[in-house]
Amino acid sequence: MVLSNCPLVEFPEIPGCLRELDLSGTQIKEASLSLVSLSNLRDLKVSGSSIQKLECNMFGSKEIPASPSFRFLCFDTLAVDHCRSLKLLSELPPYIRYLESHGCTSLGKVSFADHYLYDLELEDDVSAFYMLFYNCFSLNQESIDNIEANAMLKFESQLKKQSWTWEYNILFCCFPGNTISENKFEHQSKSSSLVLKIAPNRCCGSRFLVFSICLVADLTPCHHHESLNFICKYQLTVAGGGGCEQFKSRWDSGTEDVIKWKFMGDHVFILFSKHMVTKDKDYEEASFEFYIENPNFSVGEEIEYEYIKVEKCGVCLIDSIHDGSTQI
Fold first, then answer.
1. Domain spans of the chain?
2. Position with higher pLDDT, 98 vs 223
3. Strand pairing of 310-322 and 187-189?
């Protein structure tokens, strides 16, 4: 249902069977969603609207189900980008796949519903999570902690489902800041490269090495933003002089925005993909190199690249996946 730019000041009554709702550009100030009554809603868009508060009342007036495996699989996309009056996003579904919140300069508070109430079932052909908080400069520390914790929850959920075997697998989370969590990313460097040692496999059976990464970069120099590429090149060295293998992973910035805007200041990026998982071949060392590529398509048919410096980087290594089972 498309109601964009309609003269609406209150959230409309909509049928429970509705799957998509576009309220972009409306004058709605507040919305409290009971996602039980809207159990089929997949996509909600309120981009560029006057929304100030959006609260997800997950169970409405009903009691929370006694079972810890309440299934909530539908709500995929929430777009609140360029809502300059937005101050609160409350109790968001923890496994929402695409959260587009960039340009919400007044957004101060973000929280997620308790993930223990949900039983996540990812579709076999899709395992992608985007959480975009570009230029959300008013986020308080608690909200940044919530966003970071939710990103790591989604990373762990992908491991538990062993979803790196799927064709499409991405985690991309960004928010303003210049601090990498020491609790979540043990290996850190104040540059664009990092080397870490890999402990020998002391257990019986094979294991996989799984890396998630965190980067800090100042995006102010970007002249355009549509096609930023985040590149990770890493090399794994086999113990005892057994040679080395090289790998590469790439993420795009997740924005396809026709509204002209610029990145501003330092941002933190938490990234993961299936290319960051590899079967251990008695590796003893991993070395990483990171950079951000900004292709310029406006120079005739040629592509010119500018490169954004990665100021800090961090790596989380999980190496306890044996014989197809995951222990985190």
1. 1-60+72-176, 191-249+275-327
2. 98
3. antiparallel
- Side chain identity, residue 325: S
Helices then strands (H, E): number in the chain? Answer: 1, 21
Q: Please, are residues 147 and 89 in contact by the beta-carbon 8 Å criterion?
A: no
Residue where the block lists tokens 């460097």:
189
**Euclidean distance between CA atoms 279 and 133, whole angstroms:** 33
What Cα–Cα distance (Å) separates residue 19 from each residue in 45, 142, 160? 12, 32, 28
Token duo for residue 81: 């980008």
Per-residue pLDDT, 302: 63
Q: State yes or no: pLDDT of 67 exceeds 60.
A: no
C-alpha 81: how far from its chain's center? 15
Q: Which residue has the tokens 């222990």?
A: 327
Cα gap 97→94, rounded to integer Å: 9
Pair 91, 98: CB distance under 8 Å: no
Query: C-alpha angle 191/196/173, rounded to 5°?
Result: 60
Contact 74, 58 (CB under 8 A): no
Question: What residues does 174 pair with on adjacent strands?
Answer: 132, 269
Q: What token pair was written down for 31?
A: 């919305």
